[in-house]
User: Fold this.
Amino acid sequence: MDKINLNQKKQKLEQAKINLKNYFVGIDNIIDEVIDRISAWYIMPNLITRPLIVNLWGLTGVGKTDLIRRLVKELEFADRFMEMQMSSKAQGYEKNVYTKLMYSDLEPGQAGILLLDEIQRFRTVDEKDGEIRDYDFQDIWMLLSDGKFAASDGAKEALMEFMCEILYKQEAQKFEVDDDDDEDIIPAAKRKQIDENRKFKRYYYEARKIKRLLKLDIDIKEIMMWDDTKVLSKLEEAFNDPTFYTEIDYSKLLIFISGNLDEAYKESQHVSDSDRDADDVYNKTKRVNIINIKNALLKRFKPEQIARFGNTHIIYPSLNRNAFEILIDKRVSVLEGLVKKHSQGIEIKFSKEIKTLLYNNGVFPTQGVRPLYSTIDDFFNKCIPNVIIKALENNIKDVNMDYSPNEERVIAKYSNGDIYYVPYVGALDEIKKERRLQKDQVCDIAVHEAGHAVLYALLFKTPPTQIIANTTHAYSSGYVSVHEFHRNHTLTLDLCKVYYGGYLAEELVFGKNNISNGTSEDISQATAHIANAVRLYGQGNTVTRIQNPDQVAEITYNFDYKSSDLEIEELLLNQKEIAKKLLIKNKNFLVEVANYLMENYEIKPEKFCIIANKHNVQCECIGIDKTITFEYLKSFEEFCK
Assistant:
């Protein structure tokens, strides 16, 4: 191998990494990992004897597909790239991967890039764990195994298919079909004369297919000059040659498999949670690992098929707040440039308040960049045209854009001192505004969420990661988000006290008969945690593992539920009583938190700690990426003494 050539390839790969990082936001680590994994394939492809399979998993809109397309462009592989949108049923007549490859620009025996996108739409196991047998692209497992198709699985069938197509066409041309009196139909005799006189007798795609099928090392233009007789002769010769049928080798492919595996990402279900802290979601999705991925794949594929995906799984977290803010800056900068280019050099600048407006109304942490870009475009479409027209009419070149949330309008400040107002309210801000007008409801939500937050601080000595009392969620007007837990019985019991916090705070403040229906999910969660502790984890007096009603996959035991039901009920009542006493004892703390939420609708962890310490409650921010656990090491050391 040429040392100079290897160094050039290495430098090109490094430059590709730099360019990709300049284009994408928030996925630098992903880009590093992708480049590292493909280095040997790109720099020394002759050493590759099996396809290199790289899996990309993540929530929607984080840059999986676009990353591969950009990488293909950077490496100048556009003429050796194929993208397949995966599905259990093919959209066209090509029902297998071999046929797709045959019509693609990917040559057998040569390096190329194949993207199998949206793999979650392709499955061999149904929702009830039953095997699906009539799915298309069944030869994908052969490709993923060693990159080679046996002759009997592709080449011979393809030769026969092509021969039959030509024979059928020749037979059809013997008869003039004119049922519809179509003037465009050429009579058979005239068509034959035209075919004999023209230089090129085959379409490009046909010639390419012939070259592939017959493994010819000649120019495609030459094959385009072959008539049907010559093609049939070549096909029949290959078909009848017992030594011709060898395996079709695509072992030098770089195969990217990309998809959204919702089963691996618990946060994927929170599609409407625009109020969720992006950093909180980022830290939780960052914990997804290869085991989560393989378990999620098991919902769609058989174990032996999952093995063919290999172990190179690159897992995207969601985008964090900083990434979204950079995306806003970059997108706004692009639009500023477009305005200047297409409006006679008008320079328009946007304030921090406008970027905050775009963030608050465009960011759904689990849905990636698409909702944000849609919000930015909507803002520009509604607010900018009239501002530019006024600037053009007055020959003004500089405009500063600002936003007043209280006045609900965009403020255009022109360099000549003029001011122009554009009424504008973000879609999500409008929802929050409507809810804020319902004072009694806001009070109820604030008290409820304060109950959760206060108990969490009292029991775990740290504030929740997020406390919201006015959301845009369709089914929840507020929520408290907490840290990850390494569970044991003690922590489970304390968490159940927190679940009852909202219910108990409402009871203490409004009375038993005025507790809202919003406590339903809290009670369900508390019950589920205690029931699992008793029936599944052996953390109660019941030592037999018992199936819970909603766990259909578990083995059902013929067991009397009554004894465990009584134990669960007793544990729940005990946690509820302890939690109630804690709230009564810390009434002033509860009241101040509720008041703050009524006025501000959200409490940041730092502010919560200040309020807690004011009421002599030990509370320290530990970071949203931390996991709360029992002090096992300390207990072990004490035991050893």
